[in-house]
User: Which sequence fits this backbone?
């Protein structure tokens, strides 16, 4: 096994990815939100790219069990039930419900690997479980940071680096990129919250008054859920 | 001023890049070779993408003052005067001569920013001079690692990180990506040769018997030359 990481989001969909498991990471905040929702009894999350798609898809689904969530510019969209703060996705709110989700970067990253055999949703909160799943699958892990509007996202690469650190302990070989992400994780591991507060995306969330999300998103090993993206839907399998 | 780095080579040419200075880095070995050639009295280096282009362009130029150099698979191409080892580009050989150069990654990286106003060629050997030039220009530096067949190249990102370290000392702000490359540089700075020997590209060169190139390419601050790429040609301006 050999683990790799994409530093910058790719344009267009991935190739089929035989023998690989793609691990999509959008720490701030889409994948952390998905993990939280499914951990709290949400039945499935359906990621869509546009706000229009979210509304039209939701119309075709049973209203009493369907919620629409997500953000534009970091804030809840008018008419949505939920924003993109994982703290909103409580058991009271999401248990037994399906969520149609659209966010600026995370749902696009998921769509870029739609159709690949193995796609897992990861964040700091479930990184340990994701690594266990990767080693069980015996497929080569490829970390896919969601980035920020097509650019490098420090928090996602650092989270990928945390999983590289765990994978290396399991004897998995690392590419140069994977080694680099592990070094970045090691540099920030003593204070992940400080990393989240000083990175470009974190600064933007702080300006929007969403600083509490940062501490929530950098907690490690708090969920054993390993959400799987298959046939357009993210579920616990 | 704000400095950024592209982690993965872009497909297709850059946008115009107004107010920016692009710094192309292919430590192993194209940009180190260009710096060495120009430091030793070579009049200009003309980067071309294919071997055929190299031969046909050279035919149109005065034979006695034109050399063809470069590699495929790391080795000199049949019929070329020089390979891609900077150690070949001695004063005896290149002084007063023009070199038509084609390499697997470096010349492609240069073509990706052809047409931009400011394009500089950098490696560890001239990093200090390049940083000085960037601060004089007062344009936002964008490091462009050549990568390896479209993938992440550790040695180029670490070299970019060295320049980020110097730029930060000059008061230049760093993007998240620039910060990350600086951290990677700091991790490897105590032993750049070890980094070069263990990275994927270095391993390949060692297999080809080109290990002496590694030590040559990671020397720092040995050339004050700042090659500039303009109108298809790299020269000292």
Assistant:
């Amino acid at each position: 096994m050999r683990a790799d990481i994409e530093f910058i989001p790719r344009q267009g969909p991935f190739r089929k990815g035989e023998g690989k498991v793609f691990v999509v990471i959008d720490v701030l905040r889409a994948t952390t939100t998905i993990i939280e929702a499914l951990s709290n009894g949400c039945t499935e999350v359906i990621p869509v790219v546009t706000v229009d798609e979210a509304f039209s898809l939701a119309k075709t689904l049973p209203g009493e069990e369907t919620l629409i969530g997500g953000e534009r510019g970091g804030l809840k969209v008018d008419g949505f039930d939920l924003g993109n703060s994982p703290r909103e996705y409580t058991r009271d709110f999401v248990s037994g419900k399906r969520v149609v989700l659209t966010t600026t970067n995370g749902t696009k990253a998921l769509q870029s690997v739609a159709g690949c055999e193995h796609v897992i949703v990861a964040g700091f909160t479930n990184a340990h479980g994701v690594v266990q799943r990767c080693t069980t699958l015996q497929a080569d892990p490829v970390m896919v940071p969601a980035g920020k509007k097509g650019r490098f996202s420090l928090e996602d690469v650092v989270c990928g680096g945390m999983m590289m650190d765990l994978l290396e302990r399991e004897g998995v070989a690392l590419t140069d990129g994977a080694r680099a992400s592990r070094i970045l994780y090691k540099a920030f591991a003593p204070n992940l919250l400080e990393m989240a507060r000083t990175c470009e995306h974190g600064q933007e969330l702080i300006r929007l008054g969403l600083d509490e999300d940062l501490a929530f998103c950098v907690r490690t090993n708090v969920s054993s859920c390993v959400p799987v993206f298959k046939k357009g839907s993210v579920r616990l399998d």
